[in-house]
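Please describe the entry underneath.
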Amino acid sequence: MIRILTTIHTTPNIRTYRTHSFENIFKSLSKNIEVQIIWLVYKPEKIDVKKYSDKNNIVLDIHDFKNAVDVIKKIQPNIIWAAPTLNLPDFALSIAGKKLGIPVVGEIVTELFIKDDKFEIFKTYLGHFFEQTVPTDISDGERKFMKRGRFFMYKFLFLLKTQKKSGWKFFKILKYIFILIKAHMTVYENLHDPRFSCNVHFVETEKLIHQLIKKGYNKNNLIVTGIPMYDSAAIEIKELEANKINNSKKNVLLLTHAMYEHGIWTKEQRNSLVKKVLRELSEKGNYNIVIKIHPSSEQLNDYESIVHDIDKSIKIIQHGNILEYIVNSDVIITYSASSSLVYALMCNKPIIICDFYNLKNDIFIDGKVSISCKNEKEVLETIEKIDKELFVKKKDLEKFTKEYFHKLDGKASERIASELLKIVQRE
């Protein structure tokens, strides 16, 4: 049996990038060996771990442990999967895994855009610190004074205790406090930092390999696999297209992204954009609008308070199969590049990016596979032209896919599963 320990910021029944990826990896691995995934859930409040556990998925609560070393000693995993980023629980698992000799693996994906205004990021993070909620909250009843800031400090203390238990000296711990603070201020201009690296990295593309080596990553620890989240999409898209819902009005899907929650935009910027775009479309009256928000990093009541003042008929969806909403749409409106937009490309849907705040190096804009609009008027004008003009050329789409998403051949999970088996066999 392979036992894989990983972290998750919500419960594993919520469909996220990591749960979707693990679902596909699990299928591939299970063809050769019995697999058990152990999820270390980190939320502000304790959860009922038994409620979410089954034979193949064991759920742990971070509040039941003082540090990541204790987690690993109790669970005895074969492999630890930790994102090689500044995410505190992942970094703690990575440090503890290396200390205890457990192989630590993680995925490295392409930077989708750049934001280098440090003051704006600092201001947004400071505002987050005093918030009464976290993005994974379900209802207003979960509000608490400085909840988000206090939980950040809880995670930071968990990391510090892990560093101490792993034998780190005082000055090394102090050094990494400053490294982490700086990393949070520069994360959107330098996502990949070898100081947070794992033993083995599953990398999205060949192009990214060269960039990582220049930044100081060990070439021998980088393996091009593609991203497993997309593996099952091709078959699912065909099934959904066969049952597509037709509508007399043009179906517009506003596919949101946690820009405010991740410190890229202010709350005012996000709210202003949504209001402007929806008012413009609602006044026209020719569109059936659906909003699909992030399943775990955005709050439904935030959008309800914005949207229902404009048009109560607009549906706001948080959970459910994102592919279903993409397939049933005629055009996608979104904030910026995101992993979900790959599904839109696979479905040949026109993508409009609301580049109202001038993010840099958005790969979907630079790669010429989306239409960039600077204001709500341009958004409406572009939607009106969708059926009349071809906005994305086939050669640009093929070049973009090859450059940024490896093969999209449905076999990323198989490649990762093969590497995981090799790691286990070597141990």
User: Anything to note?
Assistant: The chain has a mean pLDDT of 86. The CA atoms of residues 327 and 348 lie 9 Å apart. The two ends are 13 Å apart (CA to CA). The first helix runs from residue 17 to 29.
